[in-house]
Amino acid sequence: MIHYKIYTTYQQLPNSWDTLVSHDIFLHSQYLKAIESVSPSNISMYYVGIFKDDGLVAVAVLQRVQLYVKDMFRNNNDSCFRERFKSLVSLILKGNILVLGNLTHTGQHGYFISNAISISAFSETLFKVFDDLKQHIKTHDKKRIRLFLLKDFFNTDVLHQERDNFSKKGFYNVKVQPNMLFQVPESWRSFDDYLKALNKKYRRRYKRARKKYNGIVCKELDLQTIKKDSKRLYQLYKTVSDNAKFNTFVLPENHFFIYKQELHNNFKVFGYYLNEELVGFYTLILNNNNDLETYFLGYDERYQYNMQLYLNMLYDMIAFGVNNGFKTIVYARTAMAIKSSVGAKDYPMTMYMKHTNGIINALFKQIFKLMNPKKDWEERHPFSK
């Protein structure tokens, strides 16, 4: 018999939880403790264990997210028409949403099912969980869920087998920006192999970027340095975050410190110093020696262009991934063209959504087509054939 339990903290999770999800750090209690401790102020966590008799056969991680207009749209340099459009979208999305997955990170890190349960049984259980949590939140938190969201799925994800079932329940299949992945060839052993594989044009581009990088010192930051420089790290993060066209959250200032404290060697922070001043940084999450997940970064705009900080960060991420034996470097979405220029490929992603207002739900498909434009960047080919 299939049944489930809903938990409101990682401390309540059954002992078998980590064994089942050992392949994905984003579902592991170590990570859940970190994000629960220092999640954005508008995000609350829920965890679901799905059991067959007494055995744990599937898990799900959900977030209740309070969307605020000031966080959704922080770049105010748009035309009058686009401002009005953003205001309309804000009115539609404003309020509480329930998410299967992790809004702070690109990718499908919201569920795992074992072979002991079918995907159809899992999805039917998930619908029951949505209904239960919707009622629980209304009763205990006096909040009404306006939107259900299931994110982010590659075209190969097994959950797509339930597309027809989702449609019957009122969920829309919405295409979103791709995830940029760098697949490391098995034969590569060091960053030199990457450089040798570049064609002449992109090898020259790499050398120019490194030349502009002259004077910058890059070093990994330990826990105490992260704590000491938390304000500066946050300032640099906000510089980049505030320039994004659309956001659903703002990280708290101590986010990177707590992640390092809880995730230890599975969380890396690298800082860029010019004359001993921190002018940029990037972060990585190590996912079980297979996937190197790029996380948040930041930089001082005074040095971004003339020293090509961002491009050099992308190169340094590849160097770390190749030198440490990772199979995939997950660059996530945004800035697709420049990520393509270092060798990343775009992999389409899909989300499923349902608004609790029937009229608005019927308009969803067209609205999100406008918010997620078609491919408007040129794919680069940096490697020799």
Sequence-ordered SSE layout with sheet pairings:
Layout: E1 2-7, H1 16-20, H2 29-37, E2 43-52, E3 55-67, H3 69-72, H4 80-93, E4 95-100, E5 111-113, H5 119-140, E6 145-154, H6 163-168, E7 172-183, H7 191-197, H8 200-212, E8 216-220, H9 223-228, H10 230-241, H11 255-263, E9 267-274, E10 277-287, E11 291-299, H12 301-304, H13 309-323, E12 328-332, H14 336-341, E13 345-355, H15 358-371
Parallel strand pairs: 4-6, 11-12
Antiparallel strand pairs: 1-2, 2-3, 3-4, 3-5, 6-13, 7-12, 7-13, 8-9, 9-10, 10-11
Helix pairs in contact: 2-11
Domain BioF2-like acetyltransferase: 200-334
InterPro entries: Acyl_CoA_acyltransferase, BioF2-like_GNAT_dom
GO molecular function: transferase activity
Name of the CATH first level of the largest domain: Alpha Beta
Strand proportion, as a percent range, falls in: 25-35%
Structural class: alpha+beta
Number of domains: 2
Mean pLDDT: 92
Parts with pLDDT < 50 across at least 5 consecutive residues: none
Helix fraction bin: 25-40%
From the alpha carbons, calculate the radius of gyration and give it in angstroms. 21 Å
CATH architecture of the largest domain: 3-Layer(aba) Sandwich
Order of helices and strands: EHHEEHHEEHEHEHHEHHHEEEHHEHEH
Would you report the number of β strands?
13
Shape label: globular
| CATH fold title of the largest domain | Aminopeptidase
